């Protein structure tokens, strides 16, 4: 029994080395030769199924240009995480090898992409390179790429959320919370939860999911509960033009909510989050109590439960 375990561990070690080099055909062939003599090893079966998944997804990869190759690899990882959740047994060692091998390959593809003049494309390539570095554990390089992405195209929720995730993984809690709060305010729908790795944000997402939210509504409720739970407590002073846009956004959302054909499940939390931002601003500039009370009244009208929790936490 001990000898079989040693042989199984050795086989898994060898196949993982092949996966880290993205040599899927060799890995699959090795597993085909190994599995018949080790039919009870669930980790090897998981790894074999994973090889088939990746091979099928990347079968026509060479027909694409380098940027599209990078995109295909990234999207395959996203699908692979869903594949993992459906498996009874998972080999963490194999998952790590797929992560290391294919994010390294994706990084290689994005780095080979031709120079672009379009700021949006420059930002996207830099963001994806930052994502790859983050997944590979190189947080300093990730932040450098994400900073370049933000310089090319400022104010993008997807970029800022990735920066926040990196800061959280580095243990820089204040920077992480400030940037996550900013990203959700800019556009919660542009934040891809499947690529966020930090414990803080994933625990928050799971907590909000447990309340029954999913999809687009989940994206908008996460920052609301982050405030209620005391996670998004840091604030910055808004510039005058930002205050104007905030108030215009609130007015627009109030108008949209009056139309019964619009999705209140998504619009309501989005509006509540903006009310929180407005109260933060009023507190920062020491606005009079009646102004704050007026905003609180609007919050109570839209959601009594959130109003009560917010009052209890901050007043």
Keywords:
315 residues; mainly alpha; 15 helices; 0% strand
Characterization of this structure:
With 315 residues, the chain is mainly alpha-helical. Helix content is 74%, strand content 0%. The chain contains 15 helices and no strands. It has helices spanning 2-20, 24-34, 42-57, 66-85, 92-111, 119-135, 139-152, 157-169, 173-187, 199-209, 215-228, 240-257, 264-284, 289-302, 304-314. Helix 1 packs parallel to helix 5 (92-111). The longest helix is centred in the C-terminal third of the chain and has 21 residues, at 264-284. It is elongated. The protein starts with a helix and ends with a helix. Mean pLDDT is 94; it is low at 1-6.
Give a short overview.
The protein is mainly alpha-helical and 315 residues long. It has 15 helices and no strands.
């Amino acid at each position: 029994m001990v000898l079989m375990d040693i042989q199984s561990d050795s086989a898994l070690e060898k196949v993982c080395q092949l996966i880290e080099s993205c040599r899927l055909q060799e890995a699959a062939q090795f597993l085909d030769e190994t599995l018949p003599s080790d039919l009870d090893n669930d980790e090897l079966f998981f790894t074999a199924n994973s090889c088939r998944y990746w091979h099928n997804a990347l079968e026509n990869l060479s027909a694409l240009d380098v940027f599209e190759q990078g995109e295909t690899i990234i999207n395959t990882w996203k699908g692979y995480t869903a594949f993992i959740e459906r498996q009874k047994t998972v080999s963490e060692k194999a998952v790590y090898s797929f992560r290391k091998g294919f994010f390294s390959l994706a990084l290689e593809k994005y780095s080979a992409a031709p120079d672009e003049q379009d700021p949006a494309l420059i930002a996207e390539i830099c963001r994806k390179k930052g994502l790859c570095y983050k997944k590979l554990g190189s947080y300093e390089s990730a932040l450098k790429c994400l900073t370049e992405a933000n310089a090319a195209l400022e104010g993008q929720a997807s970029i800022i959320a990735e920066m926040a995730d990196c800061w959280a993984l580095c243990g820089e809690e204040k920077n992480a919370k400030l940037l996550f709060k900013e990203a959700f305010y800019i556009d919660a729908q542009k934040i891809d939860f499947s690529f966020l790795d930090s414990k803080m944000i994933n625990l928050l997402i799971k907590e909000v999911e447990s309340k029954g939210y999913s999809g687009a509504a989940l994206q908008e409720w996460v920052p609301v509960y982050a405030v209620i739970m005391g996670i998004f407590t840091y604030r910055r002073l808004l510039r005058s033009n930002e205050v104007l846009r905030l108030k215009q956004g609130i007015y627009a959302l109030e108008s949209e909510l009056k139309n019964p054909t619009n999705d209140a499940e998504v619009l309501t939390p989005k509006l509540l989050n903006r009310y929180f931002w407005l109260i933060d601003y009023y507190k920062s500039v020491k606005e009079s109590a009646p102004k704050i009370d007026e905003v609180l009244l609007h919050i109570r009208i839209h959601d009594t439960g959130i109003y009560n929790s917010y009052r209890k936490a901050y007043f």
